[in-house]
Design brief:
By secondary structure, the protein is of the alpha/beta class. Helices cover about 30% and strands about 20% of the residues. About 30% of the residues are buried.
Length: about 180
């Protein structure tokens, strides 16, 4: 019972952290143009094939290690092998901290672009989104516009169309050739 109360307070503390963070401008990134590194924040409960994001390497002529993917699952078994680093609700700590080594590693980098690949309001994904240092943020129309600079209107299950639309807009914005 105590754990349930503690989790509720952690959640409330996370919501407050998120509200406060959304009032501030996102952290700036040193580079001003061009996509050379991409962070992908993926809701694995909605989209089960995160390895597709590695196609960005070829599509945008990136270095092989330029794409970093982290996935969210509402529940995951630590003993199950996942091809992608995963975090879940049980990793939520106090004041919006996410206590997971994959998350810490992911957030320690700067990226040119963050792909917010989720459409549902989700506290942990939203906290990860605001904590990730990225110059350009891309996501879906279902999410609040304050999370993304570029908003695409494609179904989350249709990665091919998402990728085509993203490429088209990045060319228009002179981010890729």
């Amino acid at each position: 019972m105590f754990q349930g109360i503690k989790d509720k307070f952690k959640h409330k503390s996370g919501v407050k952290f998120l509200k406060d963070e959304l009032k501030k401008p996102f952290a700036t990134v040193a580079r001003t143009k061009g996509i050379t590194s991409i962070a992908c924040l993926v809701d694995l409960d909605q989209f089960e094939n995160p390895s597709l994001f590695y196609e960005f390497v070829e599509d945008f002529n990136l270095r092989p290690n330029a794409v970093k993917i982290i996935g969210y699952k509402s529940y995951y078994d630590k003993n199950s092998p996942y091809s992608t680093p995963v975090f879940s609700d049980k990793d939520l700590g106090w004041k919006g901290e996410i206590e997971n080594s994959y998350v810490l590693e992911f957030l320690n980098r700067e990226y040119d672009m963050l792909v917010n690949y989720f459409t549902d309001e989700n506290l942990l994904l939203q906290i990860m989104s605001v904590k990730t240092r990225a110059r350009v943020r891309v996501g879906f129309k279902e999410m609040d516009a304050q999370y993304n600079d570029l908003i695409l209107d494609t179904p989350i299950k249709d990665f091919k169309t998402f990728k085509q639309e993203l490429k088209k807009y990045l060319k228009v914005l002179n981010e890729i050739k």
